[in-house]
Amino acid sequence: MLSLYVHIPFCRARCSYCDFYLVTRQDFVGAFFKALLAETRFRSSELKGRSVGAIHFGGGTPSMVPVAYLAGWLREISALCSLTPDIEITLEANPEDLDREKMDELHAAGITRLSIGVQSFLEPKLQALGRAHSAQQSSQVTAEALQRFRSVSVDLICGVPGEDVALWERDLGVALGLRPHHVSVYMLSVEPKTLLHRKISLGQLTVPDEGEQASMYEAAQRELLLGGYQQYEVSNFSLPGFHSRYNLASWQREPYLGFGPSAHSFSVSDAREFRTANVSSLKRYIEAPEAAEGFREELQEEQRFTEQVFLSLRINRGLDVEFLRKGNKLGHQLRERIAQFRDKGWIQEQDGQLYLTGKGFLFADLIAGDLIFG
Asked: Given CB 3.0 to 4.6 Å as the disulfide criterion, which of 33, 96, 164, 373 pairs with 69?
């Protein structure tokens, strides 16, 4: 089964904490979609005879663009490959773009899942993040989306400037009251070269320390699990059966194709695995969509092993101890490392498989790295 990702790079403005590839000029939307169709047709051999179970429009802010462009690309892709009858087609969206008419258009175009970047349901947090929508819009849009789409996800950020655990629990309470099918919880990451990083470096802002962020993460786990959500990945919780198909397939190292500037792909051919990425330049992409690929790498055995360990722990499907023993660099020390993490309450072992505990999710990458490299 194949999944598809489409990177739509347009945003009205760059958020202070964002380091994704995007552009804030909107006069290139038409040219971009013309290039997107050209790239898709050029890569038709990668699609021919394939069955696609998930499509994800990411960005950027895909909800900004006219729905007709999205519908046109979906028509094109449906002619090039086979879409499963129950395909999940996700669109990332901002609340300020989603009035009732726009949501009805998106639904009619074939969007089945809306991933709404509310970030918070509380006004002080939205202001601290510099978001363009209000708390009222966060709640209203989520409620109306739940009436229209098969699946609705909301993004929430914790650890924003001025936030404490009590404020975060209020935020979670509003989300639980609306009961979306899926909730993604992200701890605010202060990325280099962002406006947020600059303000913190200058002492203009402070964010909660690591201990308080950990308490917020644990509060999210506790409240969402009590609310009937399952944690199927480090940052993602869903009601039973409502996980993100595209994301889970990616974490399980299933093939996916990415279209648009900066989009990534993972392909398998004759037992060889490749990761590729398109150029991170809208100008270059529009000028030569058939030459969009800017990076290609064949994964070697050690890279495959490393990815398998990191991703298996991240989605907590179980990591085979014997598989880990054959590929890591610790030798006889592996058992000692496993015992140390078990004693800390970060992992548990059952039937030859390692699983992270709720607390262990906080240290997923650290644990994976240590079990591989020491």
From this structure: 33
